[in-house]
Amino acid sequence: MELTERTHLATATKPTATAAEPDAPTRATGTKDADGMAVASFILGLLGLLVLNVFLGPIAIALASVALWRGTARRGRAFLGLGLGIADLLVLVAFMQFDSTVSWNF
User: Measuring CA to CA, which residue among 47, 40, 87 is closest to residue 62?
Assistant: First the structure.
């Protein structure tokens, strides 16, 4: 009888996934999302040097920071995105000082 009670307790405490309950995100999903954020920050930071740096620079900085905080495998890409986002804002400030306006054009 003791064996059946243990078996019953062991099966009763196991969490089972149903169709109504989705599985919790795994670590691989979180890392994959962070890798995507690192790549996105790099691309947005690069594009921000040419157009819309007032918007793309801060977005690149935020995405790179979150990717680094989540432990991305693409740390170099995230640091490049962070640096390019900061460079976007520095380019904006330099052209604002040069033109004495809030925006710049060629």
Answer: 40
Instruction: Give the span between the Cα atoms of 15 and 58, in whole angstroms.
Output: 42
- Model pTM score: 0.67
**Biggest CA-to-CA distance, the chain:** 87
Q: What does pLDDT average to in each consecutive run of 10 residues of the chain (106 residues)? A: 55 53 57 86 93 91 93 91 94 84 60
Return d(Cα 65, Cα 83) in angstroms, integer.
Answer: 11
The phi, psi pair for 10, rounded to 5°, reads -65, -40
SS3 71: coil
Residues in contact with 66: Cβ distance below 8 Å, sequence separation at least 6, in sequence order: 34, 37
CA gap 77, 70 in Å, rounded: 14
Hey, what are 30's tokens? 């979180």
Q: How far lies 38's CA from each of 20, 31, 35, 101, in Å?
A: 33, 10, 5, 32
